[in-house]
Amino acid sequence: MVRPPSLSEPNVEDNEAPLSHPLSPAQASPPPPSAAGSPLTNDSMFTPSALLAKALLCDDEDDNCSQGNVSAEERMERGKNKGRRSKQHPKLGGQSSLGGSPSAQPSLQTILRQVQPPSTRTGQFHRQQEVKMQRIRGVLLASLSINLVCGFMSATMTGYVTIVLAWGFFARPSPPPSTPSLLGAKDHETSTIYLSWIALFAVALFLIYIACFGIHSARKVSINHLLRYFWGAALGITPLVLVTTFAFDFYDISRSFIRHHWDGKAMEGLRLVFCSQGAEAGGKCAAPVLGGPNFSSIQDWCEHYHAGADDCEAIKHAALSQADKWIYFMLLSAGLLGVLNLVSLLVSMHLCVRLITPSVIMTYANDNISYLLLLPAGCCLGISLFLFSHTGFSPDHTWFAWSFLCAAALTLLNSVLTLVGGRLKKRRLLQACLVSNAVVVLLLTGLCATGYIIAGELSDQGSFYTSRRAQDIACKIQLRGCCCCHYSESVPDNRCPEWGTDEVISMIAADFRIASLAALLTILYDFGGLITGFLVMKNLDNYHCEYI
């Protein structure tokens, strides 16, 4: 084994022969301090290379390993003697050859880290960050894959339901015998079911597109593409929450809708699917509620139009029961898929933020939040107009519609203030926008809670929603199937016997639930604007002037 020259030996160049005669006394160097047993004081002994050489060649507890050639037997004997001394004198046993306590003696790992150049440590840090980003990217791809699968399943189900419902509408079959007497009535709900399921299908297609774009962005690791995916997902959250809530909360409305539209062309597709063989879709299975306006019961209607047959009600009941179960299964499946899609979408957005950092997100949020606030402003305005047309159907709730109108005006004002204040970087405008946005969030939160409370209390107001009052409301809002709305209001309890009091109340309560749900979705955008404004004001705290 090649031993490096001892620290006490003279330095001999490679191209020179070693000195054969001893040095003169004048030329002799003074003995090193370590020869006398004192600690080393030469600064060169503490350089990383010297410390590494010492750590590799010597035992950490060897006092004289720096003095030259020491045999293995001597090293073992010294180690034994030092062990005995350390047992007899614990306070003296831990002294180091470099002086000081053992805690001052650097370990081998510390020496190796000191010897490593900075570029090596920087490379290790970058490799650790790269491994971390690869893990986040893998989880993001898995979450986006869940989004894609849920989107395809939702699109398949909603597309199938839409085709079934639209089949009769576009096929334009011959109307059932009871339909001519109902042609004069306005049917505002005929297209509602199409719009509802078409909206579900459109949201599913949008989520599929967002998921595909997100997978492409995650594989490419493009900041611009990931930013576009993030804001697209932010826009997709609102309709996803809307349709998911609709799937869970509006089954009773859907059931009443199907029951009262069963004999119309809107349900032609369902009758073709669920009516038993031998019963034509426009025949026995299409019996109207209570036999329609010209008959007192389905039995009378069936005997009149089907040569004395008496099985129309049984055929209709069996088909309608199967259709109700089918719609319930579809709505429940759409709701569960919506929840799973929503959770995975939020996870994907969180991972996207970790990849492109919150500062980059906030930079684009400052530029786009003023335009995003136009969506809740339009939503509040639409709710207000919708409620103004329904204020006569319930007790005095006009203030509810006016509150949404005020929220729409304030949200529009926030959008303008955010746009102007963000471009001018004027502190007072941003502060006014922050305060106004906080007021809108509190107002919409109160309206959301109030709407659900009103919807829950409507059924308890028996003094207001009597049978007579419910039939008057059914005629006023022109619910489909009312036989005798042309009768005078003085005629008691027979203007719209087809609609029960509970069904009319559920229709009115649905208006307030829709308004509350829209308010909840609007809060998401306004709350995002509030957070953005708060962060902007926090970033401007270090400035001491009005204009930034």
TrEMBL record:
<keyword id="KW-0812">Transmembrane</keyword>
<feature type="transmembrane region" description="Helical">
    <location>
        <begin position="326"/>
        <end position="348"/>
    </location>
</feature>
<feature type="transmembrane region" description="Helical">
    <location>
        <begin position="432"/>
        <end position="455"/>
    </location>
</feature>
<feature type="transmembrane region" description="Helical">
    <location>
        <begin position="400"/>
        <end position="420"/>
    </location>
</feature>
<feature type="transmembrane region" description="Helical">
    <location>
        <begin position="138"/>
        <end position="171"/>
    </location>
</feature>
<feature type="transmembrane region" description="Helical">
    <location>
        <begin position="369"/>
        <end position="388"/>
    </location>
</feature>
<feature type="transmembrane region" description="Helical">
    <location>
        <begin position="191"/>
        <end position="214"/>
    </location>
</feature>
<feature type="compositionally biased region" description="Low complexity">
    <location>
        <begin position="92"/>
        <end position="107"/>
    </location>
</feature>
<feature type="region of interest" description="Disordered">
    <location>
        <begin position="62"/>
        <end position="107"/>
    </location>
</feature>
<keyword id="KW-1133">Transmembrane helix</keyword>
<feature type="region of interest" description="Disordered">
    <location>
        <begin position="1"/>
        <end position="45"/>
    </location>
</feature>
<feature type="compositionally biased region" description="Low complexity">
    <location>
        <begin position="17"/>
        <end position="27"/>
    </location>
</feature>
<protein>
    <submittedName>
        <fullName>Uncharacterized protein</fullName>
    </submittedName>
</protein>
<feature type="compositionally biased region" description="Basic residues">
    <location>
        <begin position="81"/>
        <end position="90"/>
    </location>
</feature>
<keyword id="KW-0472">Membrane</keyword>
<feature type="transmembrane region" description="Helical">
    <location>
        <begin position="226"/>
        <end position="248"/>
    </location>
</feature>
<feature type="transmembrane region" description="Helical">
    <location>
        <begin position="514"/>
        <end position="537"/>
    </location>
</feature>
